[in-house]
Amino acid sequence: MKNKATQIIRNTAVNIGRLLMAATFIFSGYVKAIDPLGTQYKLADYLQAMGLGSFLPEWTLLVGAVLLAALEFSLGIFLLFAIRRHLVSKIVLALMSIMTLLTLWIVIANPVKDCGCFGDAVVLSNGQTFIKNIILLAIALMLQKWPTSMVRFVSKKTQWIVINYTVIFALALSAWSLWDLPPFDFRPYHVGANIAQGMKIPQGAPQPQFETTFILEKNGQQKEFTLDNYPDSTWTFVDSKTVQTAEGYVPPIHDFSIQDNKTGEDITQEVLNDTGYTFLLISPTLAYADDSNFGRIDQIYEFAQDYGYRFICLTASSDKDIAKWQDITGAEYPFYTTDATTLKTMIRSNPGLMLLHHGTIIQKWSHNKLPQPEELNQPLEKSALGKMPSDSIPRKILLMLMWFVLPLTLLAIADRLWAWTTWVKKKKENANKIISTFNKKEKKMRKKIVAGNWKMNMNLQDGVALAKEINEALVADKPNCDVVICTPFIHLASVAQVLNAEVVGLGAENCADKEKGAYTGEVSAEMVKSTGAQYVILGHSERRQYYGETAEILKEKVELALKNGLKVIFCCGETLEEREAEKQNEVVKAELEGSVFHLDAEAWKNIILAYEPIWAIGTGKTATSDQAEEMLAYIRSIVAEKYGNEAAEETSILYGGSCKASNAPELFAKPNIDGGLIGGASLKAADFKGIIDAWKK
Ligand SMILES: O=C(CO)COP(=O)(O)O
């Protein structure tokens, strides 16, 4: 019990942890994959901080960024679907260990401002990142310890589709984002942002705090002072140092300026305050800029000239590189200087084109997706180019869902349906196999039994007389089977006296579900046993129906009966409605599971089952021999599932319900029917003997 509870807790913890980890990896991989250049810049920052700045060529960092994004995204999806659980949990643990060490270093040494784990989408401080990684590392340890507790969402046979689709999707997403621009832009220079607004410091925003320390000297001794304890003029000033004690508010855009390199003139405000349109061609380094689309750029420049729009190129390149670019592309537009990092933040394309309208970013284009010539035949005021694209974000989200989430969801649903149908099919096949094995087999050596159930009939004298008559008849003509008569409690002690125990067994029709004590009117299993009885009927439908005996009560009764050395004739069976709804198997199985299937194999040896369809009891409507055989074969198959084939072969299963001398031979001829539990026909010695004799035919 305790083990089961621990297992449930563990499985729940592992699966919650796995979903959290999956969500983190998917998000972190995704935001890196849609911005490979941003990830590359971050990797470069790390290498710089480690003193390995120029150790690797730029393209290797870009490849590294794409692979890192694909790795994180794919691991997240694999965790989500619980694919290759052992391997994936090991890789995740290794990755988290490295990440945690790395973040411990950035917390201590502070070499980078933020870790960049989630690109620009969620910026965490180094301390927050460290705490996040400690939690994820703990989850990774748990997943690695119990990988198989992760519940699969797709079967092993289908997982290769998810693996390939995910890896290809992640790489394609990066390639697309590199060719075009990141589909989602989390930087301060996104479409719709007003640059001047982004540079503003709101009123009352915290100012940076500084403290100045003065070093002064007197009589050859130097001492440090602040403004608060500045000494008298007998001290001579030596030096002062100022340190920042608190950071002030930093606006989202704090590093944007446009300078004319030749004149030193700053035209930032002039550009931002221009109420018209301005094209900014942006290239942090012209030496690395892609020049394949220069013709299109020149066309746009001409268009700007024609309509009187400003068109300038912002770069951080040297004059030599500018001249080279002009030489290659024939560029006639003016060049201005802006910080390289700012330019890289503004647009993830080298070169990229940005359109401003009164300082607000209206459009951004990668050099691969510049406006087409046919879009440039009317002024921006009148064309779609001059307007901010309206619904692009929901549309992009929908596209992502359609291209990735939808196919995988459909795959998972199809896979689960398929797994479920094969499971059902297999289970049916197994059950049929067991049933047909039993059907084919000759009746084994298990006991054949005919048991009478007198129910509430016969007074004491009549009962004793009937018992005597049956006993005499059977002593005179030995039966081929075990015979039992089950009588009301009041008969037991007297009937026991008249029966020859080797020939006729004695049983009660019920016993209490309590051991002993203040239970007025009840008769305990121990009392039954003390009369000389060896059997007790339990679970009869009349007791379930009229006296509210539930599976739990019957379970108690069964246990007490067995404990007191009684053999139990345990009844089961369905109502007419249940049979009409074809629920008979389900009902019978539930009855056995509820009251007897908990027994161990040793206790099971003292159980005799009796299938009594309620619709056939006392109605004169017998189940056909085929119906009865089918059910008894099924019951034997579920006993076999529970206790094994051998135990099932040795379990006696009786049929009850309007069984009489006329139909008994046909019923008893069936391989799985081991005898009968007889109601009405057990109240007359001749009728009862007629049924017993069916075993002789
Ligand atoms: O309930 C029965 C035996 O327990 C069957 O009763 P009948 O044989 O009267 O149908």
TrEMBL record:
* Assembly behavior: Homodimer.
The processes (GO biological process) annotated in the record are:
gluconeogenesis; glyceraldehyde-3-phosphate biosynthetic process; glycerol catabolic process; glycolytic process; methylamine metabolic process
* Catalytic machinery residues: H540, E612
Q: Which UniProt keywords apply?
A: Cytoplasm, Gluconeogenesis, Glycolysis, Isomerase, Membrane, Transmembrane, Transmembrane helix
Give a Gene Ontology cellular component term annotated to this protein: membrane
InterPro entries, per database record: Aldolase_TIM (IPR013785), Methylamine_util_MauE (IPR009908), TIM_sf (IPR035990), TrioseP_Isoase_bac/euk (IPR022896), Triosephosphate_isomerase (IPR000652), Triosephosphate_isomerase_AS (IPR020861)
Please tell me whether the keyword Glycoprotein is annotated for this protein. no
Q: What is this protein called?
A: Triosephosphate isomerase
GO molecular-function terms, A-Z? triose-phosphate isomerase activity
Q: Which PROSITE patterns match?
A: TIM_1 (PS00171), TIM_2 (PS51440)
Q: Look up the record and name the pathway of this protein.
A: Carbohydrate degradation; glycolysis; D-glyceraldehyde 3-phosphate from glycerone phosphate: step 1/1; Carbohydrate biosynthesis; gluconeogenesis
Reaction(s) catalysed (UniProt annotation): D-glyceraldehyde 3-phosphate = dihydroxyacetone phosphate
The top EC class, named as a word, is isomerase
Residues holding substrate: N453, W454, K455, G618, S658, G679, G680
Q: Which organism is it from?
A: Segatella copri
Q: Which Gene3D superfamilies match?
A: Aldolase class I
**What is known about what this protein does?**
Involved in the gluconeogenesis. Catalyzes stereospecifically the conversion of dihydroxyacetone phosphate (DHAP) to D-glyceraldehyde-3-phosphate (G3P).
